[in-house]
Amino acid sequence: MLRLAAQSATGTLHRALAPGNAFILQPDPDARAPAPEGKNVLPYALRGMAVKDNITTLSTPTTCASKTLETYRSPFEAGVLEQLRSCMGTVVGKTNLDEFGMGSHSTNSAFGPVTNTTPFERISVGGSSGGSAIAVATLQCDMALGTDTGGSVRLPAAYTGVTGFKPSYGRISRWGVVPYANSMDTVGILAPSATSVMSVFRCAIEPDPRDPTSLTGETRSRIRQSITKSRKRERARRKRLGQWESEDDDTKFMNVRIGIPVEYNIEELDHGVRSIWKDALEIFQVNGATLVPISLPNTKHALSAYYVLAPAEAASNLSKYDGVRYGSRAEGWREGTGHVLYSNTRGYGFGEEVKRRILLGSYTLSSEARDNYFLKAQKVRRLVQRDFDRVFAVPNPLLPTQHFDLSDLDESTPMMDKLGPPQVDFIVCPTAPTAAPSLQYVATQNSVDTYMNDVFTVPASLAGLPAISVPFSISRQHKRRDHPNYTGIQIIGQFGDDQRVITIAEKLEAFRDARNLFRTPALQQFAVKNGVLDELRKLYLGEKENLAPGIGPRIEKILLDRKYHPVSDQNRQPWSEYASELTPEIRHVQTYGPRESRKPRTDKEISRDLKAALEIWEQIKTSENNDP
Amino acid sequence: MARFAPAVLQRYLFGGQLLVRGCLRHMRHAPQTAPSLYSQRYHTTQIENTSSANAPDITIPFRKQLKDEAKQRKADEIGKKPKRDNQRLDNWELTVGIEIHAQLNTERKLFSPATSTINDAPNTHVALFDVAIPGSQPTFQKETLIPAVRAALALNCHINKTSRFDRKHYFHWDQPTGYQITQYYEPFAKDGYVTLYAQDGLAREDGEKIQIGIKQIQMEQDTAKTMSQPGDVHLLDFNRVGLPLIEIITLPEIHHPSTAAALVRKVQTILGAVDACVLGMQSGGLRADVNVSVRRRDAVGGHEYGGVHGLGQRTEIKNLSSFKAVEDAIIAERDRQIDALEAGEVIEGETRGWTIGSTETKRLRGKEGEVDYRYMPDPDLAPVVIGDDLIDHLKETMGVLPDQEIETLVEQYGLTAKDAMSLISLNDGGRAEYFYNTVESYLRNNPDEDMSKVGRLCGNWVLHEMGGLSHLDASEENPLNFTEAGRCLITTGKLAHLLDLLGKSKITGRTAKKVLNEVFESALRKVDETPQEIIDRLGLWFQPLSDQEYDELAKSVLDIDIVNQILAGKIGKINFLVGQMMRKDADGRVDAQQATAVLQRLIEEYRTN
């Protein structure tokens, strides 16, 4: 059933009534395929998909949030949707976005901006997949598809507190994805947790012959082999050097090397963001990973290269919207600039940001500017990719073996041994330099400043690498007034290493949740009462050796066990939601709101938190008793 | 009846132009002036300046001068050429580069599996990508490489192992995506050449043979077909959009208009011969753009095109759709540029148009109106990698190119280049096939005969004698019903048999022609009759004259005056008498040697008497 959400003032645009203006159209918000669970289908709790409105669907128009396509109906369905629907997914709505995916705050939509939920109405949700992100965060769908060209999935995920994944370029079919910049466009997944991302990802990665950039089955198996082989080689090498530890505990990050790009510690980095970056790294280190500072020297040029390449491709891709074969056509073409047939149509149909990027792209491709901009930017793109290939232990499976000369490296690059700098499995950095900014602040920025938000997401896009944004909470002392206290930590892996990136994110999320649990005042109160505060503190600090024998691992094991996990699939909640229940400092706005400042917590809240903590403690104790 | 203003009438009568208004509007697309054959021939060829041969200060009788001039003209085989132009061409050098767009002979479009058609109902063969439906993507149809690589090989090009597709941006309603996918940065073939021979219609100045370099060949998409209707309505047929084309870009190495036309014609022949393109210029499968520049022979221009330096400013004439248009447009543009330069003007780099039958090129747009195509590598399309195995396979299966075949026909079969050209161009190669079979079966009966002699004999009969056959019951176009495979009404066996009889002097040449006609007519009546049977039936076997008959015939032509002349020493006059004897004998049975002998004997008798 098709339900038009609302009509715009002019009577032509469909406006969504749903909270947050997340949807352009909701055909059937509650539809879920009830068929049984199975091996190759989506879990029931993930079947309601919200789909960004630049991915074509048959049942509804596909508008790309543009006036050009305001009534456009696609004659075919996107390849990724075919796959997900065959896995029991149902489209519950088409979500709002920045027109054609161009923007970082989901405000450039012909259907009005996407707004954040109470009390953050004045805060950006990020873009361009802001509608998809907020729909997941506010439980209006089970999971959502977005598109990520330069961070359009990861950024809104970080700003709304959900998990957002951008796969390797070519992993998920782009057939039916209206292109913005084809060489970087990917279909991304937004979900409450990395575990859900994995379930969706598994159902969406069939090769699609209709997409010429979709990796073929042959290439995929070659990539798989290449990764397995190089991991084996790395393992043998480390064993020889005596650097290999047992991998008995697969919940931990044993033998994982995490790279910390020193260039990402930029001046503009928010204190709060820097502290959660530290938090995340601490979790990795405490749980067995090796932290390694690495150098990605060309990152500083990546953003400029992106904003040359993406508009160039956009200008090219968007030249098809001329109103001749489909889409809206403006009246009175004869009066258009230069009496050109399309000038009025294109002037009428496109929004300001789209026009800006078309002009920018047309200029950088023009014969006078091409050498200085477009070709230079392509070279930078190569350098960025080379930077990544140099630091990853797994070589790029798409390229022949590359040799990196030590003399090319920056002097400050730390060396691992005489062979060169250390090589890592993953790179961990913030998703964005700040937490979600206020829209008011965004409005005062010029467009170049706005582009700054993408500084950490763009490099992975240029290199086509898989990257995931995991939400983290900013501690009380760094939280900004009226702003949400969460943002994202990004994990980047080598090309084709998608599954491992998601798996690492799953583990990170589990440890993050456990850590948040330990931080709960209620749990601490409980611990004081029971005289185990000291043990808890040691556990929290990772002083495992000082812990009473057996207790630490057991506590952690229980906390990590899917059965007792606070975000088990059966009882799923967006992380931001449950986090606010358990840890009031994260999202209890009324506490920090301008009027009701520092209102003491009610008894009801305290007792609820206490109850949750008690339950967990009970589980820990039971498991201890069950131990032989 | 409508009345025309005198001015209009005058223009119509003298210029062949008619002012069109109102309901006659649609005629606009027809040529506005009737092409004058005379004026065009007048332009098509240039003669070398031969004035130095006739030094002007020596007095020559007027009659002799006229005679010599006529001889010279005949030798040059051309019409006349105004002196003014000759002198100008002494001072100016023309340089032409050509871009030829040819439709590849493929089943599918370049980037979609939609089938390629010529005459189907509009918009019936269109895939999503062809009309740029949002979210659709191109799928390169690798089968299109086969004719493309064949064409490149036939044009002696180097095949690039890796080539890429680029987008060339411009807005037009016949281009749905807003860009044409072409190969700008890395084409699939480059550095080839075409060899042109005199028989290809080369300008005389270029001599017997010339090589024109090919800079590159690229694959690209065709546009949609626009059907303009009255009232500013344009209908679009997307069947054609996305069909694969190759663009062949020559180096600016052509200096004569007729050579340019010969090049385009030759390229069409070659592409047809290797089955790369099926449609010729006449059906719109081939279009040409020409770049024209001139420079003073004693000066160096400041421009460089395709690596050739020192050229003058060039202009481009787009969309020429016939060989004649290529030649005429170049002449008109050359003359315009020389006029402009001599008047002290400057040539602008601009795009010009040409209408068939006109005498001038028309400015379409100048440099300021040029589209910046904003070339960009297509991010959806992977590079095309062509393997050596494909190239080798196509090389092996390509067959013989026309030039090679002509060479064989000339060198081994003893034909003239002209006859060889006619042979292979007639009946889609069927005539040549027929020729080979005839030679073969003739040689079977006469294995010792010289190949080139047999070739010349058979060539003469297959081409000229058989070419002259016609009959009311036969089709006008192809009276012998020649097929591509080399079959026709007269089997090669019958022709070879007939030639064999002729060669062995069993019949005379005149009889052979008669018998050939009989064989043709009986085949038309579907009667199977061998040459032998026909000769038997008509009693045409060659019977040599008896000595007595020779004597009688010789006596009848003897003239006392001539005999006296011969006796006085003018021995050559005897041939005149032999000729008389042959003319008198209607059946052609007179043998020249015997006749001479008889005549000599009789004349000797006179002397002794």
From TrEMBL, chain A:
It is found in: Mitochondrion. It catalyses: L-glutamyl-tRNA(Gln) + L-glutamine + ATP + H2O = L-glutaminyl-tRNA(Gln) + L-glutamate + ADP + phosphate + H(+). Residues 208-244 are annotated as: Disordered. Residues 229-241 have a biased composition (Basic residues). Residues 49-501 form the Amidase domain. Residues 213-228 have a biased composition (Polar residues). GO terms for molecular function: ATP binding; glutaminyl-tRNA synthase (glutamine-hydrolyzing) activity. The active site is at residues 52, 128, 152. Its EC number is 6.3.5.7. Its main location: mitochondrion. Keywords: ATP-binding, Ligase, Mitochondrion, Nucleotide-binding, Protein biosynthesis. GO terms for biological process: glutaminyl-tRNAGln biosynthesis via transamidation; mitochondrial translation. GO terms for cellular component: glutamyl-tRNA(Gln) amidotransferase complex; mitochondrion. Allows the formation of correctly charged Gln-tRNA(Gln) through the transamidation of misacylated Glu-tRNA(Gln) in the mitochondria. The reaction takes place in the presence of glutamine and ATP through an activated gamma-phospho-Glu-tRNA(Gln). Belongs to the amidase family. GatA subfamily. Subunit of the heterotrimeric GatCAB amidotransferase (AdT) complex, composed of A, B and C subunits. This is Glutamyl-tRNA(Gln) amidotransferase subunit A, mitochondrial. It comes from Mollisia scopiformis (Conifer needle endophyte fungus).
From TrEMBL, chain B:
HAMAP family: GatB. Keywords: ATP-binding, Ligase, Mitochondrion, Nucleotide-binding, Protein biosynthesis. This is Glutamyl-tRNA(Gln) amidotransferase subunit B, mitochondrial. Allows the formation of correctly charged Gln-tRNA(Gln) through the transamidation of misacylated Glu-tRNA(Gln) in the mitochondria. The reaction takes place in the presence of glutamine and ATP through an activated gamma-phospho-Glu-tRNA(Gln). It catalyses: L-glutamyl-tRNA(Gln) + L-glutamine + ATP + H2O = L-glutaminyl-tRNA(Gln) + L-glutamate + ADP + phosphate + H(+). SUPFAM superfamilies: GatB/YqeY motif, Glutamine synthetase/guanido kinase. PROSITE patterns: GATB (PS01234). PANTHER family: GLUTAMYL-TRNA GLN AMIDOTRANSFERASE SUBUNIT B MITOCHONDRIAL AND PROKARYOTIC PET112-RELATED (PTHR11659), GLUTAMYL-TRNA(GLN) AMIDOTRANSFERASE SUBUNIT B, MITOCHONDRIAL (PTHR11659:SF0). The keyword Transferase does not apply. Subunit of the heterotrimeric GatCAB amidotransferase (AdT) complex, composed of A, B and C subunits. Signal peptide: none annotated.
